């Protein structure tokens, strides 16, 4: 049976939960478009996160991989366009690592573009009444580390892959006054739609999604 691998991260920076995993695990064992979704949690640790991800890829041989990550402060579902070959951590990861200006893959290219139909995904999510946009940066923390490593690993395979950032959950926003949030129900629906679109849309649509800064 064909599978889709969706991942979320463990909590980090002292948080009690990580909504990326809370949403991803809701899709575990779900059938979407005749394909089985398998959810796996990744550690918020440089290096180890890619080892866990690669083990899951080897085990499942998925046709699609979507990594989900938290981007506190963002207001919408952010479908990442590009991952860059650099680790530059503002804070330490959950193992105390804080790489600065270190390449993810020493001989790797400067960047990889997502192979998801990113414009079609955001268009569908918006039509469902959920805010969504293309993001031009996945940051330089473990999220970008995973996205770059994922695309590097799958560069010679037909499987599609990419990363989607989500806002804080309402539970987190209560503890961070003024922080934008999105309900888990909306996030899960958006991820369901992203999976469905990525499985069925071969050629992305042409839709404005750029940024001026």
From TrEMBL:
Annotated Gene Ontology cellular component terms: cytosol
Example GO biological process: proteolysis
EC number: 3.4.19.3
Gene3D superfamilies found in the cross-reference section: Peptidase C15, pyroglutamyl peptidase I-like
Keywords: Cytoplasm, Hydrolase, Protease, Thiol protease
Catalysis: reaction(s): Release of an N-terminal pyroglutamyl group from a polypeptide, the second amino acid generally not being Pro
Transmembrane segments: none
Keyword presence, Translocase: no
Catalytic site: 80, 143, 165
Record's subcellular location: Cytoplasm
PANTHER family linked: PROTEASE FAMILY C15 PYROGLUTAMYL-PEPTIDASE I-RELATED (PTHR23402), PYROGLUTAMYL-PEPTIDASE I (PTHR23402:SF1)
Family according to the record: Belongs to the peptidase C15 family.
Assembly: Homotetramer.
Designated name of the protein: Pyrrolidone-carboxylate peptidase
């Amino acid at each position: 049976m064909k599978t889709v691998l969706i991942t979320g991260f463990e909590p980090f920076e002292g948080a009690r939960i990580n909504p990326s995993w809370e949403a991803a695990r809701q899709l575990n064992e779900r059938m979407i478009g005749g394909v089985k979704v398998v959810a796996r949690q990744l550690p918020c640790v440089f290096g180890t996160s890619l080892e866990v991800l690669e083990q899951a890829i080897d085990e499942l041989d998925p046709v699609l991989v979507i990594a989900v990550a938290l981007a506190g402060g963002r207001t919408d579902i952010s479908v990442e366009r590009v991952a860059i070959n650099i680790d530059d951590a503002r804070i330490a990861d959950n193992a105390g690592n804080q790489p600065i200006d270190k390449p993810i893959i020493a001989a790797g290219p400067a960047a990889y573009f997502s192979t998801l139909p990113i414009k079609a995904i955001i268009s569908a999510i918006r039509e469902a009444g959920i805010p969504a946009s293309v993001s031009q940066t996945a940051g330089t923390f473990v999220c970008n580390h995973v996205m770059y490593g994922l695309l590097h690993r799958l560069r010679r395979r037909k499987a599609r892959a990419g990363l989607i950032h989500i806002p804080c959950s309402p539970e987190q926003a209560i503890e961070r006054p003024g922080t934008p949030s999105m309900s888990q129900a909306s996030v899960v629906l958006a991820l369901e739609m992203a999976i469905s679109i990525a499985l069925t849309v071969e050629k992305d649509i042409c839709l404005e999604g750029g940024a001026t800064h």
